């Protein structure tokens, strides 16, 4: 901290001790009110409004009397709030899902038949994978559906996205770059329900008519649509990674008589490898969490495809399970949907942390500490 | 002189050679475009010109390309054309051609010759290894052109000899799908044309490092164009399909200063003679955005200010960073579940506009925090130091120097974030819902004071409300038949709203970046 | 240069008057030498946007010798060097007019293969720019990209592995750049972990490994200690038997020690005088050049 807040109090001509006591008091009142409000809100009380008003009052008083300290505390509270939101999400998701995890145990990822290795049962069978009447909720089909659609999506968005980024960052003439880059960024904003609409009214019927699939909608379509959707994000982030490679490094390669393409392959790509993979991971995260396109394109099938690798099967994903079944779910069924949410949340969180680590490594590498 | 062989600075190809390669590329791009149209069924096997069907034309073009490419390679090998090929091929093309040969060999054996699986696999392996090995060991000019030209000739021949005709079908085992000839022919033809073009482009630059660069640039450039074309087509398609219905009946009376835009200003009605509109959904989306901004932006900007101005780098900031990035990538449907478990029970146990606002506000939080932090970080430290050196306190510096300088960046982040949440469907599905036929929420008119806590109530906030993205979803679940036009128009309005936010956001960002650079 | 500081006030006055008064005589830079010119520059103008960075430079660079470029900071030495192998093409705002010939062939003609040009005209940059790769890979980068060396699994399988030759080349290049002793036990470490001076010598080794005809060096010794500098100077002297070396330096003694001819650029992007090094340092024609080399200027 560069300047302590006492200097402001000095300005106002009051004694330091007085001002400090005022700040402390205001802070205590404000913080206390906020805590009480939070507690009341959690316990679902209509009285929440009282401490909220108290907090607002303390803040207003602080704004006029101890502005610097107030701002610092309020911004600090805002920062804490960010973390609290994430904490609340984890707590409420997990709390709702715990009963079904207890009920199912490892069978939450069970298959129809038990999995045995050398006669030891690793994973007991569940018979029917998903049955609301039998209270059996195995997430295996949806995990598989998410996996399949994500893999297809990344086969589309990964290579094409990285190639697109290379084009924009390294090959395109400046004029093209300056118009294509914002264009791609804008395209990243197309809402997923719009993709879902296109998939539903155009692509699904087309594939049904011309490729003889048994019904409307399949994982291959969803994968391709999600891949297209993730494409602009992958391009945009990978492009940032590529342009962060210092020009002097590229110059060094060119001055040795390497071609531009050799420089891209030999210097730029390896140097930005972490950043580019972070971009692809980000795309994976998008694909895993994508809901609406999968929900409207896929029918509500909770069985594994036959055979497993049949990408033209109709198995739904974790996200679309939630979106298409929450409406008529209650009790254990609803908790199972929360369990699906937990699985989603955890996998995306892992992806996020991994991609952050990778990115931090890239920074260190370019700074020469690796 | 230090090197034994000194090359000239210029390596010019003969004109005939260049013209041949250009010809192949021109024909190839035509074939690729035709193939794309054929896959989309715009062009079919029945489309004919000059007495020949589209597929025959494509096959003939492939045959011509294939033989030209082979001729280019042989000409380079025997020295008719001056080129600088490497002594042997590289791994990438070897794998690519090997893979194509593997697939072609296997499919020919199993589909055309009807061999059993093991024999087909063996044939595939032999073909793949033979071609891959040839590409690796042969001089680069031959290794590039022979397989590429051969593939084009092969596909051309298959089509011309009617082995692969429109009526042909292939149902790969284990997949519930049947590929008909009229789909397979254009896909194969497009691929063959692409490969032939690739070889011709490499030849045009005389093979070697320069040739590989041109060939790679050709593919990468084509990919970029293809990507933009696909995405632009999506948008155009929605524009074309939705524009008419969305703008139907727009009227402006300059005298009465009356403006009517039925689709946007009317609600959903049950009269068969009057078209439905999306007015309630538009109002709902506006309120959602306002609410989300009120919830998310102050928190996000506050956090950004604290993190970049007050906090010392350490465990706490690291934790917050991980949390923000985690929130950023949390799937929207998970936010929905959270709202369902946390907010809905606390707002009268029903889905409500207020719950929607708060959930979207939470989603906005990480988006705006990250962009605001970047904007504040971009404020040069000299500004802060200069201000501090004048004896101005830290808070005064933040208020009068840092925040105003960073404001454009913050605003841009908010605009982009709003664009993203305005199009979100999954969370409001769970916490707000709102049917097709709901009225527009009248938030301002519904405030009421009561004697019991919480003293102020607002029914409009505590009820479900419609929103544009949800409206589109509801159109789908209600069964599209008969309502398709309405759906297209809704999609169009939604897209227009969201993309305008993005365009404005991206535009202002570019504007302010330029201005910063010029300062 | 303590003399310069002691006279700083008077120098400042003289500089300003000197700059406006003295007219540059084209004869001063008309350097005649025996033998063939390796590179010939004629009426070279370089602009960055509206900035006129080099103003009508004409000079011929003799083959197999060391040419030093000196001049105050910002006078366009780096710009000149970068024009010689067309690295300026990489800068968007840069515009080059005039002619440069390499062995009589125009460098700025249409259809010139930049890769071929840069294979023949190598460059060591002002700031070291090693690749984020191992030391070995840094040195062998050029030869491998030119296809002069084949390594890797495939080459080994085909019995065409040049691994030994590559090791030899790496060692030879590193030795010549006077860095072998310091790095021979960690050739596989990332080059970015080296010190600034080591990085610079690695970049010199990297350039030598590609065996160019002309070597452009932009202050190669600015980050080096006296011992390493001495080694690099020895290397440059040795290089001149085989290569054409053009070197930018801010160190007058260094220019005097290693170069056969010296070109003096002064502010405004002008080439003021170009002659035998001895002549430039002992009896220059231009008053401003005299001031500059004796340390009264800049
Ligand atoms: N990339 C660039 N864009 C715009 N102007 C440039 C660029 N590079 C150099 N300049 C300008 O051109 C002029 C000459 O620069 P140059 O780097 O050639 O000087 P120099 O003689 O090498 O200086 P130094 O001894 O400090 O390295 C300077 O005025 C500089 O500001
Ligand atoms: Mg310089």
TrEMBL record, chain A:
GO terms for biological process: phosphate ion transport. InterPro entries: MetI-like, MetI-like_sf, Phosphate_PstC, Phosphate_Transport_Permease. Pfam families: BPD_transp_1 (PF00528). The keyword Repeat does not apply. It is a multi-pass membrane protein. The chain crosses the membrane at residues 21-41, 47-64, 76-95, 147-172, 184-208, 220-242, 308-326, 332-354. Residues 143-355 form the ABC transmembrane type-1 domain. It is found in: Cell membrane. PROSITE patterns: ABC_TM1, PROKAR_LIPOPROTEIN. Keywords: Cell membrane, Membrane, Phosphate transport, Transmembrane, Transmembrane helix, Transport. GO terms for cellular component: plasma membrane. Belongs to the binding-protein-dependent transport system permease family. CysTW subfamily. Part of the binding-protein-dependent transport system for phosphate; probably responsible for the translocation of the substrate across the membrane. This is Phosphate transport system permease protein. It comes from Halorubrum rubrum. The lineage of its organism: Archaea, Methanobacteriati, Methanobacteriota, Stenosarchaea group, Halobacteria.
TrEMBL record, chain B:
It is found in: Cell membrane. It is a multi-pass membrane protein. The keyword Transport applies. Keywords: Cell membrane, Membrane, Transmembrane, Transmembrane helix, Transport. It comes from the Archaea. One of its GO terms (cellular component) is plasma membrane. Residues 282-505 form the ABC transmembrane type-1 domain. The chain crosses the membrane at residues 20-43, 55-78, 90-109, 115-138, 150-171, 183-203, 215-238, 278-307, 319-343, 349-368, 401-422, 488-512. Belongs to the binding-protein-dependent transport system permease family. CysTW subfamily. This is Phosphate transport system permease protein PstA.
From TrEMBL, chain C:
Gene3D superfamilies: P-loop containing nucleotide triphosphate hydrolases. Residues 1-29 are annotated as: Disordered. It comes from Halorubrum rubrum. The keyword Acetylation does not apply. InterPro entries: AAA+_ATPase (IPR003593), ABC_transporter-like_ATP-bd (IPR003439), ABC_transporter-like_CS (IPR017871), P-loop_NTPase (IPR027417), PstB-like (IPR005670). The keyword Transport applies. Residues 1-18 have a biased composition (Low complexity). It comes from the Archaea. Residues 39-293 form the ABC transporter domain. The lineage of its organism: Archaea, Methanobacteriati, Methanobacteriota, Stenosarchaea group, Halobacteria. GO terms for molecular function: ATP binding. Keywords: ATP-binding, Cell membrane, Membrane, Nucleotide-binding, Transport. Coiled coil: none annotated. This is Phosphate ABC transporter ATP-binding protein PstB. Pfam families: ABC_tran (PF00005).
């Amino acid at each position: 901290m560069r300047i302590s807040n006492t200097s402001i109090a000095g300005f106002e001509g009051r004694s330091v001790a007085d001002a400090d006591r005022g700040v402390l008091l205001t802070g205590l009142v404000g913080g206390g009110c906020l805590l009480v409000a939070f507690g009341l809100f959690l316990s679902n009380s209509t009285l929440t409004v009282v401490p909220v008003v108290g907090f607002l009052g303390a803040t207003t008083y602080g704004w006029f009397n101890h502005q610097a300290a107030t701002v610092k505390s309020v911004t600090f509270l805002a920062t804490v709030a960010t973390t609290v939101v994430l904490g609340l999400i984890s707590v409420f998701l997990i709390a709702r899902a715990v009963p079904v995890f207890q009920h199912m145990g490892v069978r939450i990822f069970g298959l129809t038949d038990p999995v045995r290795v050398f006669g030891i049962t690793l994973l007991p069978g569940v018979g029917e994978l998903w049955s609301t009447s039998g209270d059996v909720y195995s997430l295996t089909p949806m995990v598989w559906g998410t996996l399949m659609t994500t893999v297809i999506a990344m086969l589309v968005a990964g290579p094409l996205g990285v190639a697109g980024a290379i084009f924009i960052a390294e090959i395109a003439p400046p004029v093209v770059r300056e118009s294509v880059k914002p264009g791609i960024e804008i395209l990243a904003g197309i809402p997923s329900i719009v993709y879902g609409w296109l998939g539903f009214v155009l692509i699904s019927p087309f594939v049904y008519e011309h490729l003889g699939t048994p019904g409307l909608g399949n994982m291959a379509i969803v994968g391709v649509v999600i891949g297209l959707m993730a494409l602009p994000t992958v391009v945009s982030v990978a492009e940032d990674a590529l342009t962060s490679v210092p020009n002097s490094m590229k110059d060094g390669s060119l001055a040795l008589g390497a071609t531009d393409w050799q420089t891209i392959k030999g210097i730029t790509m390896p140097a930005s490898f972490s950043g580019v993979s972070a971009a692809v991971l980000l795309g994976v995260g998008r694909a895993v969490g994508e809901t609406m396109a999968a929900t409207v394109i896929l029918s509500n099938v909770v069985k594994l495809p036959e055979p497993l690798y049949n990408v033209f099967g109709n198995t739904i994903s974790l996200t679309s399970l939630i979106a298409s079944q929450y409406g008529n779910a209650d009790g254990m069924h609803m908790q199972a949907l929360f369990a699906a949410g937990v699985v989603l949340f955890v996998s995306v969180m892992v992806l996020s942390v991994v991609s952050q680590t990778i990115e931090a490594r890239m920074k260190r590498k370019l700074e020469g500490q690796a | 002189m230090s090197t034994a062989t000194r090359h000239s600075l210029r390596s010019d190809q003969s004109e005939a050679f260049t013209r041949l390669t250009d010809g192949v590329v021109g024909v190839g791009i035509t074939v690729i475009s035709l193939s794309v149209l054929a896959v989309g069924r715009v062009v079919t096997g029945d489309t004919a010109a000059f007495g020949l069907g589209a597929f025959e034309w494509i096959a003939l073009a492939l045959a011509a390309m294939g033989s030209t490419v082979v001729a280019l390679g042989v000409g380079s090998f025997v020295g008719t054309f001056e080129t600088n090929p490497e002594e042997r091929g590289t791994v990438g093309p070897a794998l690519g051609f090997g893979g194509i040969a593997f697939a072609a060999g296997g499919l020919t054996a199993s589909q055309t010759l009807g061999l059993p699986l093991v024999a087909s696999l063996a044939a595939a392996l032999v073909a793949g290894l033979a071609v891959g090995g040839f590409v690796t060991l042969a001089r680069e000019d031959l290794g590039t052109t022979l397989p590429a030209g051969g593939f084009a000739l092969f596909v051309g021949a298959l089509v011309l000899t009617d082995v692969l005709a429109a009526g042909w079908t292939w149902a790969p085992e284990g997949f519930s799908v049947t590929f008909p000839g009229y789909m397979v022919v254009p896909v194969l033809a497009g691929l063959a044309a692409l490969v032939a073009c690739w070889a011709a482009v490499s030849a045009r630059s005389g093979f070697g490092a320069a040739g590989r660069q041109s060939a790679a640039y050709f593919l990468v450039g084509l990919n970029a164009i293809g990507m933009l074309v696909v995405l632009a087509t999506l948008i155009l398609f929605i524009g074309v399909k939705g524009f008419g219905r969305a703008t139907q009946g727009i009227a402006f009376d300059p005298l009465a200063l009356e403006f009517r835009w039925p689709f946007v200003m009317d609600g959903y009605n049950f009269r068969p003679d009057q078209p439905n509109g999306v007015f309630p959904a538009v109002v709902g989306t506006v309120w959602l955005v306002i609410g989300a901004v009120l919830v998310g932006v102050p928190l996000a900007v506050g956090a950004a200010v604290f993190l970049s101005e007050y906090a010392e780098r350490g465990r706490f900031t690291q934790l917050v960073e991980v949390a923000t990035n985690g929130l950023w990538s949390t799937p929207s449907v998970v936010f929905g579940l959270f709202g369902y478990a946390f907010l809905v029970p606390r707002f009268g146990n029903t889905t409500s506009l207020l719950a929607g606002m708060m959930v979207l506000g939470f989603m906005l939080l990480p988006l705006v925090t990250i962009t605001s932090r970047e904007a504040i970080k971009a404020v040069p430290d000299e500004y802060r130091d200069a201000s501090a050196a004048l004896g101005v306190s830290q808070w005064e510096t933040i208020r009068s120097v840092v925040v105003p300088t960073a404001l454009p960046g913050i605003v841009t982040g908010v605009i982009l974030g709003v664009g993203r949440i305005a199009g979100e469907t999954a969370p409001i599905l769970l916490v707000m819902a709102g049917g097709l036929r709901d009225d527009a929420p009248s938030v301002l008119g519904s405030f009421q004071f009561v004697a019991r806590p919480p003293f102020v109530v607002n029914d409009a906030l505590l009820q479900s409300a419609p929103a544009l993205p949800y409206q589109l979803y509801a159109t789908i679940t209600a069964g599209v038949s008969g309502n398709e036009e309405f759906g297209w128009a809704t999609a169009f309005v939604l897209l227009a709203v969201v993309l305008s936010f993005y365009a404005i956001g991206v535009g202002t960002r570019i504007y302010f970046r330029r201005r910063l650079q010029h300062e | 240069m303590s003399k310069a500081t002691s006279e700083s006030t008077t120098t400042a006055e003289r500089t300003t008057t000197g700059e406006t008064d003295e007219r540059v005589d084209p004869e001063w830079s008309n350097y005649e030498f025996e033998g063939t010119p390796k590179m010939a520059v004629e009426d070279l103008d370089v602009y960055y946007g509206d900035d006129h960075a080099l103003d009508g430079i004409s000079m011929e660079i003799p083959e197999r010798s060391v040419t030093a470029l000196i001049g105050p900071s910002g006078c366009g030495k780096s710009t000149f060097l970068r024009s010689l192998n067309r690295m300026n093409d990489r800068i968007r705002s840069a515009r080059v007019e005039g002619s440069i010939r390499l062995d009589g062939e125009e460098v700025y003609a249409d259809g010139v293969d930049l890769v071929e040009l840069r294979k023949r005209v190598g460059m060591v940059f002002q700031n070291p720019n090693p690749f984020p790769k191992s030391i070995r890979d840094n040195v062998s980068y050029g030869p491998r990209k030119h296809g002069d060396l084949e390594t890797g699994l495939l080459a080994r399988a085909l019995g065409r592995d040049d691994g030994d030759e590559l090791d030899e080349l790496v060692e030879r290049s590193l030795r010549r750049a006077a860095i072998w002793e310091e790095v021979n036990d960690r050739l596989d470490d990332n080059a970015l972990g080296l010190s600034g001076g080591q990085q610079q010598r690695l970049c010199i080794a990297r350039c030598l490994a590609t065996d160019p005809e002309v070597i452009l060096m932009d202050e190669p010794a600015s980050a080096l200690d006296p011992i390493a500098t001495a080694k690099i100077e020895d290397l440059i002297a040795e290089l001149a038997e085989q290569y054409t070396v053009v070197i930018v330096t801010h160190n007058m003694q260094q220019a005097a020690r290693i170069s056969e001819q010296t070109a003096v650029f002064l502010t405004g992007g002008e080439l003021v005088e170009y002659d035998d090094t001895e002549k430039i340092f002992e009896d220059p024609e231009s008053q401003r050049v005299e001031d500059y080399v004796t340390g009264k200027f800049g």
